[in-house]
Amino acid sequence: MSSRVLTGEQARRALPMRWDVTPASAGSAGATARPPEAPTADPALERRLAELEAEAAAREAQARKVGFEEGQAAARRSLEGQFNEAMERLARSVAELTGLRRRLRRQTEEDLVRLATAIARRILRRELSLDPHAILGLVKAAFDRIEVREILRVRLHPEDARAVGACLADLGVPERVELVADRRLERGALLIETERGELDASVETQLDEIERGLADLIRRQP
């Protein structure tokens, strides 16, 4: 397109030209331009999205519930195992303590028996040393256990033999019975020889038998 420059009178008569800046796509000249409209949302799509979100939330809640329940079950099993193990240990400890109590009681009773017999020995030895005739009770008790007619010889400590020799007739011992004073024997020793063998009726021997008998009785207790 060609153009030329107006001067003088021509320039004064010229009218300004108005340019239409409205976009062609807006329609006719002078129409007001409007912003493009947003696309309309699909209700069905919105409902589906809401359903998916709700389903996801439900699955998450269910997963949390299952995980919590499994954790509780595992903790319960662990606690039950620990409890059972502790009860087994306690039962073993009680059994061990019960056995220990029995052993201690048995040991204590055996110690008491040994102590009692030791005290009896000291008392009897002292009695025999102070009273020569104390042996007579021991001899009489031994003669009551056997037939007097079977007695051949009686062995005693010399001092005990003197006390017994003076009382043989009172004890009902026949004159044929030989009374032997044996220095190898201690005070309170009493050996009686019979036709069927020898009887040891010494104080020490009888106390040993009493001690063994009591100890065996204690051991047989439940």
Explain the overall architecture.
This protein is of the alpha+beta class and 222 residues long. 57% of the residues lie in helices and 9% in strands. The chain contains five helices and four strands. It has helices spanning 9-13, 43-130, 135-143, 158-165, 203-219, and strands at 151-156, 178-181, 190-194, 197-200. Strands 2-1-3-4 form a four-stranded mixed beta sheet. A hairpin with a 2-residue loop joins strand 3 and strand 4. Helix 2 (43-130) runs antiparallel to helix 5 (203-219). The termini are far apart. The model is unreliable at 24-31 (pLDDT under 50).
- Average pLDDT, rounded to a whole number, is 76
Strand proportion, as a percent range, falls in 5-15%
**Distinct helical segment count:** 5
Q: Biggest sheet: strands side by side, in what order?
A: 2-1-3-4
Structural class by sheet pairing and helices: alpha+beta
What are the low-pLDDT stretches, counting only 5+ consecutive residues below 50? 24-31
Order of helices and strands: HHHEHEEEH
Radius of gyration: 63 Å
Total DSSP E strands: 4
Distance between the termini: 136 Å
Inertia-based shape:
rod-shaped
Helix percentage range: 55-70%
What's the main sheet like? Answer: 4 strands, mixed
The oligomeric status of these chains comes to single chain
